[in-house]
Amino acid sequence: MKKAVTFGEIMLRLAPEGYYRFIQAETFGATYGGGEANVAVSLANYGIDASFVTKLPKHEIGQAAVNSLRRYGVDTKSITRGGDRVGIYFLEKGASQRPSKVVYDRAGSSIATATKEDFNWDEIFEGVEWFHFTGITPALGDNVAEICMEACKAAKERNITISCDLNYRNKLWSKQKAGEVMGELCKYVDVCIANEEDASDVFGIKAANTDITAGKVDHEGYKDVAKQLSDRFGFSKVAITLRGSISASDNNWAAMMYDGKEYYFSKGYKMHIVDRVGGGDSFGAGLIYSTMMGYEPQDIIEYATAASCLKHTIEGDFNQVGVDEVKKLAGGDASGRVQR
Amino acid sequence: MKKAVTFGEIMLRLAPEGYYRFIQAETFGATYGGGEANVAVSLANYGIDASFVTKLPKHEIGQAAVNSLRRYGVDTKSITRGGDRVGIYFLEKGASQRPSKVVYDRAGSSIATATKEDFNWDEIFEGVEWFHFTGITPALGDNVAEICMEACKAAKERNITISCDLNYRNKLWSKQKAGEVMGELCKYVDVCIANEEDASDVFGIKAANTDITAGKVDHEGYKDVAKQLSDRFGFSKVAITLRGSISASDNNWAAMMYDGKEYYFSKGYKMHIVDRVGGGDSFGAGLIYSTMMGYEPQDIIEYATAASCLKHTIEGDFNQVGVDEVKKLAGGDASGRVQR
Amino acid sequence: MKKAVTFGEIMLRLAPEGYYRFIQAETFGATYGGGEANVAVSLANYGIDASFVTKLPKHEIGQAAVNSLRRYGVDTKSITRGGDRVGIYFLEKGASQRPSKVVYDRAGSSIATATKEDFNWDEIFEGVEWFHFTGITPALGDNVAEICMEACKAAKERNITISCDLNYRNKLWSKQKAGEVMGELCKYVDVCIANEEDASDVFGIKAANTDITAGKVDHEGYKDVAKQLSDRFGFSKVAITLRGSISASDNNWAAMMYDGKEYYFSKGYKMHIVDRVGGGDSFGAGLIYSTMMGYEPQDIIEYATAASCLKHTIEGDFNQVGVDEVKKLAGGDASGRVQR
Amino acid sequence: MKKAVTFGEIMLRLAPEGYYRFIQAETFGATYGGGEANVAVSLANYGIDASFVTKLPKHEIGQAAVNSLRRYGVDTKSITRGGDRVGIYFLEKGASQRPSKVVYDRAGSSIATATKEDFNWDEIFEGVEWFHFTGITPALGDNVAEICMEACKAAKERNITISCDLNYRNKLWSKQKAGEVMGELCKYVDVCIANEEDASDVFGIKAANTDITAGKVDHEGYKDVAKQLSDRFGFSKVAITLRGSISASDNNWAAMMYDGKEYYFSKGYKMHIVDRVGGGDSFGAGLIYSTMMGYEPQDIIEYATAASCLKHTIEGDFNQVGVDEVKKLAGGDASGRVQR
Amino acid sequence: MKKAVTFGEIMLRLAPEGYYRFIQAETFGATYGGGEANVAVSLANYGIDASFVTKLPKHEIGQAAVNSLRRYGVDTKSITRGGDRVGIYFLEKGASQRPSKVVYDRAGSSIATATKEDFNWDEIFEGVEWFHFTGITPALGDNVAEICMEACKAAKERNITISCDLNYRNKLWSKQKAGEVMGELCKYVDVCIANEEDASDVFGIKAANTDITAGKVDHEGYKDVAKQLSDRFGFSKVAITLRGSISASDNNWAAMMYDGKEYYFSKGYKMHIVDRVGGGDSFGAGLIYSTMMGYEPQDIIEYATAASCLKHTIEGDFNQVGVDEVKKLAGGDASGRVQR
Amino acid sequence: MKKAVTFGEIMLRLAPEGYYRFIQAETFGATYGGGEANVAVSLANYGIDASFVTKLPKHEIGQAAVNSLRRYGVDTKSITRGGDRVGIYFLEKGASQRPSKVVYDRAGSSIATATKEDFNWDEIFEGVEWFHFTGITPALGDNVAEICMEACKAAKERNITISCDLNYRNKLWSKQKAGEVMGELCKYVDVCIANEEDASDVFGIKAANTDITAGKVDHEGYKDVAKQLSDRFGFSKVAITLRGSISASDNNWAAMMYDGKEYYFSKGYKMHIVDRVGGGDSFGAGLIYSTMMGYEPQDIIEYATAASCLKHTIEGDFNQVGVDEVKKLAGGDASGRVQR
């Protein structure tokens, strides 16, 4: 089985049920998620031996986070136990014209207060082919950025392919700081993943003629952004998701990939949304899987886009779909007919 | 803080969860609501010192109704305690071609059996700028109509602005009776709010060329209705909501306002509905708030319409949104993108 | 009261709540359903004295299945008690591009292991006007196919009208076996019901120019299929449902009927789906009811289609709607406006 | 199958889940129950053809009440449909030192506003052996008391055995009024059932030396009460339940019966309570069933007491136990060992 | 209405439903509580005008904490809004031999990072008779201890009675630090409340001959402790709760009070526990209320003990009982009989 | 890490929530469990590298069973995938005098239809110290009994310690058949575990003077049984659980062990039961763990008994407790005081 490693934070996600607002909630659904953990679960679902690296407290809430990963087949043996708390995010699901809302309560989490000594990358990368992180990980603090850099260097030494989802979070750091830190890390990255805003937020690279709020997407603009990213950092692949936000309930979805030579655009999907969080991560995981398996470029972008389209129909951060389901949709069957 | 008072009935709302029909229900969600209470909660959410006046039994179900208002910041000190029961309405949520259904069980409620002695309007109106009621309140019985008249007179003496949502309910009284009683009360009213049917049901004023069931809306017809209402009763403002009912799941939504001189039409919204009940009340509250705050006429109708558009995405009668959220939508951002 | 009998299997349906996938589920909603049971409940809801015939174990799970029918007014006195288990099906509700999924666990159920001695058709058919079964019943095993044949013969002797929904299930038998067995049974059938695939699966009769996956429906093709079915078996009526599958969340829906002379097409509906299972059964029940009541052909197909359109908004297998509701929709009011 | 009829009110019971207080509740469990309906369900569970007579509104809440009875096999064909509302009672479950609390909202219910014309006792009593009502029924109003009297007379003419549970409710009528009305009705009653307070409340007959609040029970006192009741009204049987209230969570339970000659005392039970409501009704049903089946006096009182002991472990008003389960406990096996 | 103020932290309480362990939980019940907030709610329930002082973030989770207090009538106008997070505690309910478990996640909460400028005690204490805090408040940090000291001085200047529940929390500070800080604060305290361990943990004052784990309670030992506390700090009243821990499900409960002259012991209760958290706070609130109302010493200790006995039957931190209920139990009726 | 293997069936457990009866249930809690799987989870919770061996279908319900084990750290790599169905058992929780009820629906499960080729015991036993099965496994069918025998022989060859819980199930086989098959298997067993009935049911070895139903336990009788078992099969250890069934809610619990020389009796516990199923399995797991860790005999029996005492407070089949918790109780702290 092919091995992959992802590194980052897994948080406790607390969400009112259905469409209740925070101030109406008497219960919270308690699941766990985070950019890199979501990717690890997806890879495990596709049959990859995926390991997630983080630090979590020894108490039961930390254990529950570990168990949420084990349940879906992720290898958790490289998770360091210690520190004080599991980061939390509160999620309120939007509908129609009312947007979803996220309240973060992640400061002081075990991973945000981790040190280099917490991780032995030589052991972690034993037999591994792929390493993935996102822009959230180094944003957790200078200490974590350093650990991330250490991981990248260790991976590079072993010829492990490195992918990074830019994933800019303005609550965690400024655009300037993000640009500096990510600029250094991206030197080690092979495959760069971004959504329609990240390239601009992190590196000031703009997609021409695209008004995200209005849900307009301009293909030529994205090609330009992908080429700029590739040229600046020498990525072997740049993939960009193209979300058209009609409302909180309905989105258009597509993606493109540039491999330094050609531009590949996926089919587009009109999605009725069950749970939008983790949409980008599911795309990244699809891209990683199909690349690891040696798919053709067009098949890679179709697989990644179909995988993330399906994610929008799944409750929770984790994309609970299998290879057959993704392939069926990527192959063109979007009719949603009952499978008996 | 500006003060406003609303007067009417708050009922226990019993609704099967999700899309279950009444005869399938093993549990009922228990919330509280009613036209004027809904307006009070909205005003409190917008930062107005809103007081709700009614009568409720002393027992725990009455107390729970009081608490539902206190929780969201409504002043409940003018609620008289006594009488036998809290009115109830059962609500079954519709979907697609199946309409929502309401079964009323409100006869004999404390407010419906209240007397003039239960309310001291001099105390209630101390420092108040605005008084609001709907056509449901006087429809509860002749005694309540009289109390309502007394409140209107007391308000008028203090130069309190009075608004009324016509809100015709055919289970409570005939069109003829409604026309008589509302005709008298409307003499005191400054701001009249109505939906696409009320003017016709209560006062026989028809919107030309509009077939409500078919979801067609004719602007010229509504202008005519607004003008007729304004001319007959001397309202300083008439506002009419324009609902286009595509199905129980999808509605178009817009509104217009006439200030005796000009007609102002809001933007239109295509809504995917979470909970349709209280839609009109949230419009009235938006209108009252933006008028109290001195908004320009076009901003008033945009604020009121955006507020009520958002209400359709909120579970329960109460419109749990804040000023910033309404302004964002009224300002044109309907994309529903996640707010992190 | 007019009497009807249906014969088949009722299963325990276990479904994760909302849109959770099987592997996320910590609870299952437990309801009961099955093609012929669903028809019986619909008929009872319409005021027909409907009796459901099956075999169920004596234990409490068997009793719960009986109770689920009694609750909605179905006569259960002809249900034989005995055998080992209630058949089960697991249902995962799809959304958007993700299809619903059914996992069957029905082998060895009491009805699948029943014998001729378990049913006394003379008693069962006392005073009955209509007998209905579907292609699922004989597919449960040769023993059940024989019982079904016995029932058909007994019904025919009493001049009871017999309807059959072809309802092909590839997990239960091959197309070839289905064709053989159903071919014999259909000789006794008066009214044949089918969906867009059944005629092809069971009898090799193809609808020209129709790509079901793509959601395209071709009227001329269906007319041809209906005529072929009618010609081969001498059905007095053939009715075919025409589902256009946009996604798991949205379907178009219509139907047609051929009475040996004319073709009648219903209005079409764009449905937002709450629960798709039992859609075909609700159509059959609407067809049987309106035929029993002597409706005109066009009214029959409109009633049956409107009834099944409404089913898609109801949780569970059973179509919990009444005659007035169906007629209102069949009559053209699809606006979904709140019924107070 | 032996036939029995009970007559009274069935109410919608709204109860917060678990041990939540009314003012904490966001949902209510919605079940249905009432003294005589509870008896009818028990009898149906024991295999008696039990019919429940009442009046219920035509709307869906009325229908849900009907369905709650049909589900458990009660014959509902003698229920008259009409009137305005289903009576409601709110139930808060107590624990330890905190008592359970009931808030009634039953005024104006369909049965409370019924007239003699609503019931045709000749049809209702066709083939019936036993008629049961409780002191709640005539307490609903003079009209209902008259209907009750009419029923008693019709039953007596047909030699139907009549049982009555005194069941005094001080919210419905005064002790004096109860004494007058019940005194007349009891002239027709054969079997009288009472709890430790009823005889005193309704007829002023006191159990000597018994302090109910303190949980003390004095056998000699009860014998005296039973004899007084029997002597005054000529009952063939008087049965009294003996509840020792340790706390809201733990009760002692026993009962006695007097047949005009001998006194029979049941075994005593220490019960850990799941749901106490309907405890008395389940005793009555056990008594009726075992008497109808011709049990020996000691077996009757053991059966009735064991049945009602089990009721205290069942959620809801209805006693969902079968004859085998009652007999097993009455026979002495109270160990609660898992039945595999 | 008499006015009282309490000061401290209110936390989000996240508890798995029923008896599920943390690692089994898929949902958390979300309520709010904390020593001083719990006292404020109790006082409001008893009719005191109770104000709770704290600092909470401006976001929706902070608002939900505010609303949880408003709902039950607590005045929240003195709550400062700002800071980053709401403190959290996770609660796992124990049963039988398995203890309840609390995981704190409260570091960095808004109140723990508050400054003196956040509170204007002159305004807060306007018209106030009583000020209450617990040993948890100063344990949140030196800054909060200073604010607490400032509050005590301001209260003392206005002759406001000050009560303090020692409430030692070893996760927040050492015994030594607690002794120092509390020693200074206690100089301002009039009424001291403690459980069976606090006096020892905070001040090294031991109850002779008492083995808490074994559930033994020795009256003479407690008298000695109370006297030592009173003598050292000059408290006008010392009250100590006496918990006998049989298991997580069953506790014995009693309390004593020393007023510098006499020792008063309450009745004892055997409690079957619904929710044990907040038991001590409900005792404090009962003591404060009954003292404010001028009860006799024995009545004070009976009221406080009965109030806290009832708390053990209530879900959540808040003691949702009224004066009548407490008096009924304090008066000796512990039978738990249904209140209709 | 020490390695252990258990072999048997894991079933889907469907249980109504709380104390609802089967016929009241609208939802089933869906968990997974079975004698040997329960032991594996316990061992994993104690830090043993525990592997569970079985066969499960490839579909999602099979996957959910696998995930339920992975979630709690059990190694599932030796689970063979294939076959048709996951065995099911329905569980109704009893209370007080009403016993819990189990309805099995396990015929035809994947493991019951497995063949020798499905398992490679050489691979499975790599590095393993302990092998455990129960009397349920061979009772599933002759094929499974043969696989079990093969496993025993393979284990014996590798000097793996073998434990067996007799666990007689009368629904699966007769006492005679059980005696024959188990008699052969027990020749390979080192550690024999039994409850108070198994020795009699399987081998006809009676505990003198013990009436299980009456909850009486006689120490001398058990010593005699243990000695007979040990003498007949040469077990190195025989452990017997001693359950005293007061009611479905309250049990006494203790155990004894005989090591061929001495008899060791544990402390006794009075348990208030949350979930009784898996009580015996948790005892076995405690015995295996403490034996593997080299505990002294008295400590072994105390550990095993305390572990299983705690199990009775845990929802679900799996005993979700850790070593520290068990040791604390075994060490004598049963007070259930809150752990903060």
Structural commentary:
Six copies of one chain form a homohexamer. The first copy, chain A, has 340 residues and is of the alpha/beta class. Chain A has a single domain, classed as UDP-N-acetylmuramoyl-L-alanine:D-glutamate ligase (3-Layer(aba) Sandwich), CATH 3.40.1190. The first copy, chain A, contains eleven helices and 15 strands. Chain A has helices spanning 35-45, 60-71, 121-124, 136-139, 142-157, 175-185, 198-203, 219-233, 279-292, 297-311, 323-330, and strands spanning 3-7, 11-15, 27-33, 49-53, 55-56, 80-81, 88-92, 101-105, 130-134, 161-165, 191-194, 237-245, 250-258, 263-265, 269-272. In chain A, strands 1, 4, 9, 10, 11, 12, 13, 14 and 15 form a nine-stranded mixed beta sheet that branches. In chain A, helix 6 links the parallel strand 10 and strand 11. Chain A is globular. The model of chain A has no long low-confidence stretch (mean pLDDT 96). Chains A and B meet through strand 8 of A and strand 15 and helix 10 of B.
Can you give me a brief rundown of this structure?
The structure is a homohexamer of 340-residue chains. With 340 residues, chain A is of the alpha/beta class.
Give a count of the beta strands of chain A, DSSP E runs of length 2 or more: 15
**Spatial gap, N to C terminus of chain A:** 30 Å
Q: Quaternary state, please?
A: homohexamer
**How much helix is in the residues of chain A?**
25-40%
Distinct helical segment count of chain A: 11
**Rg of chain A from C-alpha positions?**
19 Å
Shape of chain A: globular
Listing every helix as H and every strand as E from the N terminus to the C terminus, the arrangement of chain A reads: EEEHEEHEEEHEHHEHEHHEEEEHHH
